[in-house]
Amino acid sequence: MFMLGIDLSCNELTRGIPRPMGNLIMLISLNLSHNNLVGPIPLEFSNLKQIESLDLSYNNLNGKIHPKLVDIVTLSVFTVAHDNLSGKTPGYILQFGTFDNGSYEGNLLLCGRPLSKVCNEIEP
Q: Residue 36 to residues 2, 22, 97, 110: CA-CA distances in angstroms?
């Protein structure tokens, strides 16, 4: 049995995203939007090499967008809008070059392309 997609949006989920979700390597779509999830995006999500759609928007996720996520070349939808992420966006690298401002909007501490906020050269 294959699970192609998981939609747990609008379920009032709290706490962090379970790291083992990154082991669902055949997953095509994951929607965790509109919950109350906190903490970082798990580094293990870089293992989701088949995923085409990843929606983590409208949560309280924080921390940086790990650069290893750009290794997921199958992504056609990526949104972390209206979270509390900080640091530099992955920029226009590989498939991340196709994501616009809407993918990141509402994260006041994010900077870099495609956002208009320029990152400082020296990060604390």
A: 28, 19, 28, 19
| Contact (CB, 8 A) for 89 and 66 | no
Buried b or exposed e, range 68-88, using 16+ CB within 10 angstroms: ebbebeebeebbbbbbbbebb
Distance, CA of 72 to CA of 15 (rounded, Å): 25
Q: According to the model, what pLDDT value does residue 99 have?
A: 94
Burial 28-45 (b: 16+ CB within 10 A, else e): bbbbbbbbebbebbbebb
Domain residue ranges of the chain, discontinuous segments joined by +: 5-111
Q: How confident is residue 3, by pLDDT bands cut at 50, 70 and 90?
A: low
What's the chain's length in residues? 124
Token pair, residue 85, equals 């992420």
Residue 124 predicted with pLDDT over 90: no
| CATH 3.80.10.10, domain 5-111, yes or no | yes
Overall average pLDDT of the 65-75 stretch: 92
